[in-house]
Amino acid sequence: MHLPRWVWIGAGSLACIAGMVNVVGYLGFEHQAVTHLTGTTTLLGAAVAAGDVRAALQLLGVAVAFMAGAALSGLIIQDSTLRLGRRYGAVLAIESFLLVLAVPMFQRNQISGALLAAMACGLQNAMATTYSGAVIRTTHLSGMFTDLGIGLGHALRGLPLQRRRLLLCGLIIACFLAGGIAGAVLFSRIGYRALLLPATLTGLTGVGYVFYRQWQSFSGDKPA
């Protein structure tokens, strides 16, 4: 599996961004993870069982916001395969804008902050789904750890390994963790304004992608 440089850089950068966003949401007033929905859905089930209408509505709102972000990404990009030339720059700009908007909402202890952050993460996660047969998710790690575990099992049986795919999984996990560490440190010092860093990085990633795309077009190189 051949992965061009822009895929490696983009996947690592976006995983780091997601790690920062998620840890800020988790350390915030509602302690709500926003980059993945497994825990959210579990808590939703518990809230429904307990008859906690307020918590159930909030958790349902996070799930719907994430899905709405994914729907918006699908509307803009219109493809599930990662390919140079798609409108990723526009999606990243919208994500950056949503994260900036989430900051004052979080500071006012309003659930709309978590909804905006969840929508931004849904937008990001849907932006890149597959490349050369490899599933790429940058906002949650279950699939990445699963792929690494499968690779370990294959190695123990002496089967051939998809080394680049496993390296990509390792990169995404490491960058998500690094983002979580950086986000936690920033949150302890500047509170919800820590989200301005992933918002800035998202915007810069989008701008970098646009310049890379233009350079590829100018140089006449065929996108990988």
The CATH class = Mainly Alpha
CATH architecture label: Up-down Bundle
Spatial sequence of strands, sheet with the most strands = 1-2
- What is the overall shape? globular
Number of strands: 2
Terminal CA distance: 12 Å
Order of helices and strands: HHHHHEEHHH
Walk me through this protein's architecture.
- With 224 residues, the protein is mainly alpha-helical.
- It has a single domain, classed as Growth Hormone, Chain: A (Up-down Bundle).
- The chain is built from eight helices and two strands; from the N terminus they run H-H-H-H-H-E-E-H-H-H.
- The chain has helices at 5-27, 38-50, 53-77, 88-107, 111-127, 142-156, 163-190, 196-219, and strands at 130-131, 134-135.
- The chain has a two-stranded antiparallel sheet with strand order 1-2.
- The longest helix has 28 residues, at 163-190.
- The radius of gyration is 18 Å and the shape is globular.
- The termini are close together.
- The mean pLDDT is 86.
Keywords:
224 residues; 8 helices; two-stranded antiparallel sheet; Growth Hormone, Chain: A; mainly alpha; single chain
